[in-house]
Amino acid sequence: MLFPPSLPPASSGRSLGRVETPPEVVRFMVGLAEVPKGGRVLEPACAHGPFLRAFRESHGTDYRFIGVEIDPQALHLPPWAQGVVADFLLWKPEDRFDLVLGNPPYGIVGEESKYPIYVLKEVKGLYKKLLYTWKGKYNLYGAFIEKSVRLLREGGVLVFVVPATWLVLDDFSLLRAFLAREGRTEVYYLGEVFPKKKVSAVVLRFQKKGKGLLLWDTRKDGEHFTAIPWSEDPSWKGEILRFETEWTRKMEAEGVPLGTLLDIRFAARSTEFKKHPAVLTEPKPGLVPVLTGKNLRPGWIDYEKNHAGLWMPKERAKELRHFYATPHLVVAHTKGTRVVAAWDERAYPWREEFHLLPKQVLKVDPKLLVPWLNSQEVQAYVRTLYRDFVPHLTLRMLERIPVSKQYAFSENQKSLENVVQ
Description:
Elements: H1 23-32, E1 40-43, H2 50-59, E2 64-69, E3 81-85, E4 97-102, H3 124-130, H4 140-150, E5 152-163, H5 173-182, E6 184-191, E7 201-207, E8 213-221, E9 224-233, H6 246-254, E10 256-257, H7 258-261, E11 262-266, H8 270-275, E12 288-289, E13 296-297, E14 300-301, E15 311-312, E16 328-331, E17 341-344, E18 354-358, H9 370-373, H10 376-386, H11 395-399, E19 402-403, H12 413-420
Parallel strand pairs: 1-2, 1-4, 2-3, 4-5, 6-8
Antiparallel strand pairs: 5-7, 6-7, 8-9, 10-19, 11-18, 12-15, 13-14, 16-17, 16-18
Helix pairs in contact: 1-2, 4-5
């Protein structure tokens, strides 16, 4: 079995992405479990096996219990369960499972100075070769989901508690499509249920048969969760998940998607600025501050305060991004799941944020969109659909925001009507 050769004894905490699951969450998940008598029950990244213990207490003893743990110091299972010391993502069991249940580690694998799960960086290349859904930076919990689905027997069930980020982020687009192809997906929104963790969680219940998506809300009554059905999509193909309502559907039916009207670009990265010969780390005559999200407020921009610690000649900013050269619409990327927009009339360099540019085929004045994007109606629209899934507004959220026709010039009304049709 393969696992990192240099795994330190103290790596059972943050460096392996382990977070203890609240007992009420464990009970809720066990209640969603389904397995035939005598079936094989697996808990990945098990440590002392809280899910195996809870399942056995609730469902009885007539099953085979297996726990896999990468850290031998953390593995502590009761005698009725089989413990395996292995890297779960590289583990090759001889048989499939009827139920996979647990709380997989979460975090990005990489360098210690940047990412929480650094002890696994030596085998990251192997993960990427073995796992189809690995995309972008990816998060380890996504890899655990794919591996667990592949270990299920036909009709087998997976029940995981994971962060909600996979519902909307592009890094998980392959994972969502994979789940849609492999079986039926149910998602139960829990919100922030992990103490002292600003992480919105969902329970993923997947069965390796059937098709479609079922989305649930939950209500917590004391120490118990009650599941509330929200929506069902029998033809789900892996699209992002949203808590749609009649009101949000009406807004989208009557408006025009922002991404249809404007091209959405992202700012130059910090590394690009630091490599540019004209960028300095101290102010000098003729230089302007490089702006960040902290300079952006609803409807206005603070051009004086320097939060980035970088300065450069304004006229050379276009060497990093061509759109820095002209006034344009800027929308925050780092303000939580809400929309903060302003018009950059001075055309300054930006290290962060979304930058929105008019498409040539449509005559839309983006300056007129500022009050609409900052409106309470748009804020309510975003909060309703995406709640607290992610800590920031994403491109996919932004491009789908419906634009009311009244926020374009009257002379452009015909162009907008053509887009709607």
